[in-house]
Amino acid sequence: MPNFDVKDIKQAEGGRLRIDWAEREMPVLRQIKERFAKEQPLKGMRISACLHVTTETANLMKTLQAGGADVVLTASNPLSTQDDVAASLVSHEEIPVYAIKGEENTTYYKHIHAALDHKPHFTMDDGADLVSVLHKERRDLLSGVLAGTEETTTGVIRLHAMAADKALKYPIIAINDALTKHFFDNRYGTGQSTLDGIIRATNVLLAGKVFVVAGYGWCGRGLASRARGMGSDVVVTEVDPMKALEAVMDGYRVMPMIEAARIGDIFVTLTGDINVLDEHHFAVMKDGAIVANSGHFNVEINLPGLEKMSTSKRLVRPYVDEYMKKDGRRIYVLGEGRLINLASAEGHPASVMDMSFANQALSLEYLVKNADKLEKRVYSVPTEIDQNIAKLKLAAMGISVDELTPQQVKYLASWEEGT
Ligand SMILES: NC(=O)c1ccc[n+]([C@@H]2O[C@H](COP(=O)([O-])OP(=O)(O)OC[C@H]3O[C@@H](n4cnc5c(N)ncnc54)[C@H](O)[C@@H]3O)[C@@H](O)[C@H]2O)c1
């Protein structure tokens, strides 16, 4: 394979404009990039990144390159690539990119292999597909890998499973565990961009609709509150009693999916789980129900099952497939069941990715210094990095906060004082 594979290199100019537009909203990453350019903390390091190829990711790649790294990028989902961004990274930044929006699964994996051909010292993953291929099919490269980072909840779960099996061959920092990542990216980023994806794909009015949110984790909480803000009647489904109770106290109706399936107009899965919407749910859905997924993999909606139950399937708008069931009722599936915020919209707004990717850049700098002292397991982002990003973000927003007085420091550390 040549040293890039993008849809159309002529789209580069448009991509550059959008990358610059995103950078305006990424002040923390911009500061890191300026410091990296002076200090060169990543000099000589080869990095293979497997991330959604978006304008924000482009700014992360430019930051790593400014720090002296030799970077290649492949997509972390077949439907999340922004082709103009891929073209600009190749054309303007000379960063090899292997990503084409809508690529087949075979091409997706061929691209992952191409990124691994770079013989990385560090991997940067989103969903752990790169790490998984490296450990299963490219074991010859493992001895050269020093460490890695992982962006999302689902990837972190897979890596913990690998570590528990003693299959993980190098240390990985779980970016998702940073508070400045999941508090903001998963909640506000997914919350807003999932609605954006649904609206762009369908142009439906959300007010007055029964909107079913499957999973009340970080992403689900964000989506539920935003759907309510748009006037939807929000129903939550959960398997964790604590999360279910939280959803009840937050004012939502909570019920099993089989009950929600009968009343819902729009369904969104955000669980990281499999077959959350299954055949017995499709069987009772209303005519015209819309289903979408914003969890990492396209397994949350049982599409092969729905296909079996249907007499026909046709694309009625971009990113909207109409399944005609044998009972004559129609179900509309958005974005082939892949992350809808990236399939039909542009992913998270830059302002939240500023913090997620600041964690990526600073964790990588930390790994360059410390990888040799770490074990082959999953680590959290060091607290100092997390706290520092929160401070920098507040400062960039022009917000200052109080500091503890010496008296308060003493009081909070003491146990003698009472009523
Ligand atoms: N779309 C995006 O851009 C984006 C961004 C961040 C994370 N993600 C992905 O979204 C998914 C959720 O992430 P999160 O951070 O909210 O995770 P989380 O662990 O905080 O929440 C997931 C929730 O789903 C619940 N759940 C599991 N199985 C369920 C089932 N069968 N029915 C109902 N609920 C169920 C769990 O109890 C949990 O509360 C992951 O796959 C993650 O990788 C996507």
Describe this structure in words.
The protein is an alpha/beta fold and 419 residues long. The protein has 17 helices and 15 strands. It has helices at residues 12-23, 27-39, 55-66, 83-93, 105-116, 129-137, 153-164, 179-202, 218-229, 241-249, 257-263, 279-284, 303-309, 340-343, 350-370, 383-396, 406-413, and strands at residues 46-50, 70-74, 97-98, 122-125, 147-150, 172-174, 210-214, 233-237, 253-254, 266-269, 289-293, 310-317, 320-325, 330-334, 378-380. It has an 8-stranded mixed sheet, with helices on both faces. The protein has a 7-stranded parallel sheet with strand order 3-2-1-4-5-6-15, sandwiched between helices. Strand 4 (122-125), helix 6 and strand 5 (147-150) form a beta-alpha-beta unit. Helix 1 (12-23) crosses helix 3, helix 3 (55-66) runs parallel beside helix 4 and helix 8 (179-202) packs across helix 9 (218-229). The mean pLDDT is 97. It binds nicotinamide-adenine-dinucleotide (NAD). Residues 152-154, 182, 186, 190, 214-220, 237-240, 243, 270-273, 276, 294-296, 339, 341 line the site of nicotinamide-adenine-dinucleotide. The site of nicotinamide-adenine-dinucleotide has 28 residues, from helix 7, helix 8 and helix 9.
Summarize the structure.
The chain has 419 residues and is of the alpha/beta class. 46% of the residues lie in helices and 16% in strands. The longest helix has 24 residues, at 179-202.
Question: Secondary-structure blueprint of this entry?
Answer:
Layout: H1 12-23, H2 27-39, E1 46-50, H3 55-66, E2 70-74, H4 83-93, E3 97-98, H5 105-116, E4 122-125, H6 129-137, E5 147-150, H7 153-164, E6 172-174, H8 179-202, E7 210-214, H9 218-229, E8 233-237, H10 241-249, E9 253-254, H11 257-263, E10 266-269, H12 279-284, E11 289-293, H13 303-309, E12 310-317, E13 320-325, E14 330-334, H14 340-343, H15 350-370, E15 378-380, H16 383-396, H17 406-413
Parallel strand pairs: 1-2, 1-4, 2-3, 4-5, 5-6, 6-15, 7-8, 7-10, 8-9, 10-11, 11-14
Antiparallel strand pairs: 12-13, 13-14
Helix pairs in contact: 1-3, 1-4, 2-3, 2-15, 3-4, 3-15, 5-6, 8-9, 8-15, 15-16
The protein binds nicotinamide-adenine-dinucleotide.
